[in-house]
């Protein structure tokens, strides 16, 4: 009996996600009231944080690892981007890939001692790493065209801004640029989840002993997961740096990593759609609150309530609820004859 | 014909010795490992899968020193194992579960389909979460026969199944040595299953071997009845 390599629903889901993502990435700026305004700039940053959320989501949803250092890794990606750009002036795409690699190495290095940990211990260790990274970037600052390893200008010299990538000069173009990069990276991640590493990660989450008895080298696969999710998070840092050309340490506080983890649980840790929703909540919610005249810090209250709702009634988050809704609605919207099931 | 020999195996957790100088030998076919709770059956399996490190002793299968192989390399070496609690990954399809076992034991993907055919699981594209307990046990068995296993360890493979399902599982298990060519060790409390499946059994009690040999002979020996089956109970054969 010959089987398809992937289950058909899985492939269909991935392709629909890819198509919808590309349409949104390229089409959103055409929407009246969105193009070239605050809304578009907000959505751009939301899309960028969707990558960091995807990193958290894959670690938690696929491997059961609670990592609360992702915003620190975004900072690492951003720092590496600015550092590499000011040193080399290479095209942004090259810089972005290099920064992703640097972030992957940092993620693996800080993750190494934590590899034997899981659950609460790992959460606490990663939170401390996030704190350490916050201190580091606050002390060192982000490179802005100066000399030396830290690349900071001093005295009366003007800071140098890293220009936006050639294909993303205006806000509209930059949104599309970010959108396409985010969709491509998420598609690669989705592909990885459908092949051997993704399967293996799921086995590790199910049970360490079971995975080892299947022949899984759990340490190597955890390292791979850390490297991949860190690289994806590094791309987020690179895109943030590209957006404004300069970064502020104040955006990378350790508490932001906690907030990001919460938004991933609310959005849904078991699918990449959940990561996109998480990104929207993480950056969009504070903006929305201040737009309607409320204190942006209320986001902790709003997301705290959302988190309570998610962990008590919707373990798969909003993405899970949407999938369930779709599963119920689809037969009513497009009734079709039941296919014979071949055995 | 394969031969598995455990010689003088001792496992120590602090002051407790779940296995104390245990020597066992198994020849091809399906062999039972039985004994009351805490006898050391699962610890024996854990030694064979590399989860428990013995402080003394050796394990040999046809000339290979099993203890020298790291736990995660033993699947590639030819070891397969199922657990009391089935380990089917809920978020993967049945086929992906078996595919994982194939991939990590160095077998081609086609072997996964052959293994699914062996257990005759219908619609293998369903998620682990959607399978019945019996179907999950079938996936476990499929993962155990994938590729070219040399030694298959089954820890209470029929736990939680009804008699008809147990019967079908029994058929699959007893065919493994012949069709797959592996030596099968079976731990179970279900004496009917052990009697029906195993040509030979070894009996453990308090971390020591108290008897071993042909199943019917061992089960009727007074020592085994005293330690395990209760002295007053009649053993029907």
Question: Characteristics of this structure?
Answer:
heterodimer; A: 343 residues; mainly alpha; ABC transporter involved in vitamin B12 uptake, BtuC; globular; B: 237 residues; alpha/beta; Rossmann fold; 2 domains; six-stranded mixed β-sheet; four-stranded antiparallel β-sheet; 27% strand; ATP hydrolysis activity (chain B); ATP-binding (chain B); ATP-binding cassette domain-containing protein (chain B); transport (chain B)
Put the structure in a nutshell.
Chain B: This is ATP-binding cassette domain-containing protein. The complex is a heterodimer of chains A (343) and B (237). Chain A is mostly helical and 343 residues long.
Distance between the termini of chain A: 9 Å
Please indicate the count of domains of chain B.
2
Structural class of chain A: mainly alpha
Task: Report helical residue fraction of chain A.
Answer: over 70%
Counting DSSP E segments of at least 2 residues, the number of strands of chain A comes to: 0
The residue ranges of chain A in which pLDDT falls below 50 over 5 or more consecutive positions are 1-5
Distance between the termini of chain B: 28 Å
CATH architecture of chain A: Orthogonal Bundle
Q: Mean pLDDT of chain B, rounded to whole units?
A: 89
Number of beta-strand segments of chain B: 10
Largest interface: A-B, 27 and 38 residues
